Amino acid sequence: SSGINAEYGVGEFSDAANSKWFKLLAWNLGYSSFYHVEESTKDRITVYSQHEGKPKQRVISDLTEKDKVEELVKKYRRPYVIPFSREAHLLTFEIKDRSLSVLLFHDHAEEGSEERLAQFGMAARAYQNDCTFVEMDMANGYVKMFTNFFGVKTADLPIVYLADTSKQSENLAKTKDITESGVAQLIEDFLAGTAETSAPKKEAEDELPEDWESRSLKYLTSDNFVSYVTTPERAVLVMVHKESCPHCVKMKPIWEDLAEKYKEHPTLKVAELKSSNVAQIKDLTVQKVPTILFYPTQTGSDLSTAVEYEGDRTLKGVEEFIFTQLSKNKDEL
């Protein structure tokens, strides 16, 4: 481990109602394991943290404006364990310079889950500089969308998975020992290269359909990708996706609508590419799915001219992106 960054909060309350409110706030923010509550004659919250190796603390004694307390708590503290949700997805899996995610798949409502989460949180506190720790509550419908990728079944629960998003294969490890030492051992073994690893569920072998070019949504594979996106007379907007990715599944209807809307456009073509093809395409690098790339006309054979879309994954957002890109070559509008 790269060391403990001791960030935690202590709530001292003389009033049971404030104590209950603080516990609820801690759970809602995902800080349940490390926001402690103590009985006291005073009412205050102390947030302890470190900045550049130096200990700091912030005492909040005015608990009358609870929204301000919540704002300060969020500011001074990030969760050791992030409860996974649609809103927390980017915070969970797309943190720069951190590719290791440790995920606890369990039923949060099940008896014993709080103790299990506390053990998981202790490991999270020790390894927070190496990994992102995530609670995957199987009662959450959004979480269930990811079980296919990890191969998690109800009979497996509870279980912890470690995923390395920087690798394309052999990037998963798991353990049923959900204690602080068990999770720590999984991490240490993975970092040392001694953990038993596996690959995510593979997509079916991709084949180029005969009608790929006559479709509104052009179907690309490693066989036709380069020749299609680099043909001078056309601009191509392509989505790289994976069938087991929930965000890709959500984006697919929007992509089909775009393809139908622009099928008669003189230069713009809308296409899709399964991520399983990427490794076979020289000079194509994709860090995440879905990835949306715009290839302008006159590309030649250079794939580096692609412009990546990084806005909202909505029909409106992508159409604004299209307009901006085509405006750079006004005769394409």
Question: What's this model, at a glance?
Answer:
This protein is α/β, with parallel strands linked by helices and 333 residues long. Helix content is 29%, strand content 23%. Strand 3 (44-51) and strand 4 (54-60) form a beta hairpin.
Give the end-to-end Cα distance, rounded to a whole number of Å.
Answer: 54 Å
Please tally the helical runs, counting DSSP H or I stretches of 4 or more residues.
Answer: 10
Spatial order of the strands forming the largest sheet: 5-7-6-8-9
Apparent shape: elongated
Detail the poorly predicted runs.
Answer: 1-6
How many strand segments? 14
Helix content: 25-40%
Order of helices and strands: EHEEEHEHEHEHHEEHEHEHEEEH
Radius of gyration: 24 Å
Strand content: 15-25%
**What's the pLDDT, averaged over the residues?**
81
The biggest beta sheet reads:
5 strands, mixed
